[in-house]
Design a protein that fits this description.
Blueprint lengths: L3 E2 L21 H5 L2 H10 L2 E3 L6 E3 L2 H9 L3 E3 L2 H7 L12 H8 L9 H9 L5 H22 L4 E3 H18 L6 H11 L9 H27 L5 H7 L9 H31 L2 H9 L4 H11 L5 E6 L3 E3 L2 E3 L4 E5 H4 L34 H18 L4 E2 L19 E3 L1
Parallel strand pairs: 1-7, 3-9
Antiparallel strand pairs: 2-3, 4-6, 5-11, 6-9, 7-8, 10-11
InterPro entries: Cyt_P450 (IPR001128), Cyt_P450_B (IPR002397), Cyt_P450_sf (IPR036396)
Protein name: Cytochrome
Family: Belongs to the cytochrome P450 family.
């Protein structure tokens, strides 16, 4: 059998790994996955979750190799959504809108379709475009903090991180403020699309939210077709690459993707980052004294507790990763959170070090599927954290009883209460 080797980290599996069992859905794992990641990486770095099940890859070099490989494809979630239709008693309430929309989500697409769509969409998310948004993002952060200033306390998730994310996406698309609360509710429903275990009822709720958000967006697109503005929807309508343009369905899918994936991931990045700094007050004080350190600090915060913990790929050829043979068609779960704590790549990986350099983490994936919104997420996180610390210099964690959202893919707090 021909096998394509993806990595040179071919260490022999320890005997103890045969008996190693863990539960990805255990609340203890959910609260702190990193000790388990370390054990998997040490004992069985390319691990079969159960007999005939998915492969879990935990080492940085292996994760990076798979992300760059041309011998894998993305998860076929859109196909699995479409197949759920056969279980619906009411065939008129199908999942077709959700299935098509997710098939146009860039992180579920493969070349050549992915190459075409990314070329048409990518210019709207360039670092130059994002930098032009910096004053607008700063204004939103200031407005949100002004609302809680008189209280002496706040929930960073509910009062800053989450509304900032939806406000920035709305600003990017040219959506008015009065519609943002409804968009936030739709985004909350759609964020479950990234999780591996989703019930039929949840898929139906996501399909309904997709239909409703796209009904709203169609009106906005029609307005921009008549009168273009300086916003992403206008840019997507005008986008052209070698005489190719986006269809309305594709524009709707791109806009839906921003709310489905962009709001919670960026919100979690801000929340996770602030928690890490609150737990490392000496490093927080350094940033307060030298605000220009915020860029390197945010890179470390993103590495230290990544908002996206896992990605799935499917082998298109027989592969050899480490000392394991993975057959074509088998699923590979890439543990980004584990890779970002790999001591072979990051010295003292469990230590927060805002001066860490180099810091080539994989929190935003890599290669052709590198996160389109990475530059925007970085700027939002930098401005949110820096402004919060400068305006409320005495901020402190108000509770040690913190609860994490139930997800093995997305890592984020339900609430992060502070006093100031």
């Amino acid at each position: 059998m021909n096998k394509k080797a993806l990595s040179t980290t071919n260490t022999k599996k320890k005997e103890s790994a045969k008996a190693f069992k863990f539960n990805l859905f255990d609340p203890k794992f959910n609260a702190n996955p990193y000790p388990t990641y370390h054990r998997i990486r040490e004992e069985d770095p390319v691990h079969r979750y159960f007999v005939g099940g998915d492969w879990i890859v935990t080492r940085y070099a292996d994760v990076k190799a798979v992300l760059k490989s041309g011998c894998v494809r993305t998860d076929d979630r859109p196909k699995s959504i479409q197949e759920r239709n056969k279980y619906l008693q009411d065939k008129e309430k199908n999942l077709n809108t959700l299935a098509y929309t997710t098939s146009r989500f860039l992180f579920y697409m493969n070349p050549p379709d992915h190459t075409r769509l990314r070329a048409l969409v990518g210019k709207g998310f360039s670092p130059v475009v994002v930098e032009r948004m910096r004053p607008h993002i700063q204004e939103i952060v200031d407005e949100l903090l002004d609302k809680v200033r008189h209280k002496g306390s706040m929930d960073i998730v509910a009062d800053l991180a989450s509304p900032l994310s939806v406000s920035v996406i709305s600003k990017l698309l040219g959506i008015p403020k009065e519609a943002q609360q409804q968009l936030h509710q739709w985004a909350n429903v759609l964020s479950r699309i990234l999780d591996p275990l989703v019930s039929l009822e949840e898929y139906q709720a996501m399909n309904k939210a997709t239909e409703e958000i796209q009904e709203y967006l169609r009106t906005l697109i029609a307005e921009r077709e008549k009168t273009p503005q300086e916003d992403l929807i206008s840019n997507l309508i005008a986008a052209q690459e070698q005489n190719d343009r986006l269809s309305q369905k594709e524009i709707l899918a791109v806009c839906t993707l921003l709310f489905a994936a962009g709001e919670e991931t960026t919100g979690n990045t801000i929340g996770n980052g602030m928690l890490a700094l609150l737990q490392h007050p000496h490093q927080m004080e350094q940033i307060k004294r030298e605000p220009t350190m915020i860029q390197s600090a945010v890179e470390e915060l993103i590495r230290y507790d990544s908002a996206v913990q896992m990605l799935t790929r499917i082998a298109t050829d027989n592969l050899e990763i480490g000392n394991q043979t993975i057959k074509a068609g088998e699923k590979i779960v890439l543990c980004l959170g584990a890779a970002n704590r790999d001591p072979a790549q990051f010295p003292e990986p469990d230590q927060l070090n805002i001066h860490r350099n180099p810091n080539h983490h994989v929190a935003f994936a890599d290669s052709i599927h590198y996160c389109l919104g990475a530059a925007l997420a970085r700027v939002e996180t930098q401005l949110a954290i820096n402004t919060l610390m400068q305006q409320f210099p005495d901020l402190k964690l108000a509770s040690n009883q913190l609860e994490w959202r139930h997800s093995i893919v997305l890592r984020g707090l339900k609430a992060l209460p502070i006093s100031f």
